[in-house]
């Protein structure tokens, strides 16, 4: 089916009213494959090295009793330049899950929108939410479809997590550029500052965290990453720019307000100042 089947009367093409797959990606592949990111090769004679595209950097996820917290810094870079100080990298995938992006920013945001549509389409066709494992698998399939772009240097590596309505717990999933899906335990980080963020998470995470404590751990991990990775931006109190932090639990997706993030960041800085004062004594 192609887009040439449009009805002159203005009615939707038959493809939109014919029962079919519950996968929006599969529908788009048959109806308008050129709209899929994977079907947009670079112009002839060019390579990813010729492109200067913004890149999103560090995402962290932390499990707590009853859900997960996902956080992303706000900086995007183009080589050695800061392309944006306020990009958003954490999004609701649906009511009970969140996805964070690292890699080529434009493609990553488009992938998130495609994933959101995939889950919404499934819910409308099937009349029920996809399981958390099903969502994680669908995202893996979408990433696998981007492999040709990744091989050209335009890679997208998301982090996915949510509340499992069947198991009544929060779960975190990471991916590689080939679509490999891996379930992480307790916490994880991706992006250029992930090495430093993971070290922080290992020290600060503990069993039995509540949501507020998990938010503080995630914010501190991003601050630690920003200390050592130039592509990761820490909280910018002068411009009131704070990380995007989402908590997903039994009540669904909640974006943590900047006021709570400012308080968490201030608490981290106060503890560090106190520690330095203690060392001086």
Present the secondary structure layout.
Elements: H1 24-31, E1 55-56, E2 59-64, E3 67-72, E4 76-78, E5 81-84, E6 90-94, E7 97-100, E8 103-104, H2 105-126, H3 132-144, H4 147-151, E9 159-164, E10 169-175, E11 181-184, E12 187-190, H5 194-204, H6 211-228, E13 244-249, E14 252-255, H7 258-280
Antiparallel strand pairs: 1-4, 1-8, 2-3, 2-12, 3-13, 4-5, 6-7, 7-9, 9-10, 10-11, 13-14
Helix pairs in contact: 2-3, 5-6, 6-7
Relative strand content: 15-25%
| CATH architecture term | 4-Layer Sandwich
End-to-end span in angstroms? 75 Å
Give the SSE string. HEEEEEEEEHHHEEEEHHEEH
Number of helices: 7
What general form does the structure show? globular
How much is the average pLDDT? 85
Percentage of residues in helical conformation: 25-40%
Q: How many domains in all? A: 1
Say which CATH homologous superfamily is assigned.
Aminohydrolase, N-terminal nucleophile (Ntn) domain
Largest sheet data = 5 strands, antiparallel
Walk across the major sheet and give the strand order: 12-2-3-13-14
**What is the radius of gyration?**
20 Å
CATH class: Alpha Beta
Uncertain residue ranges: 45-51
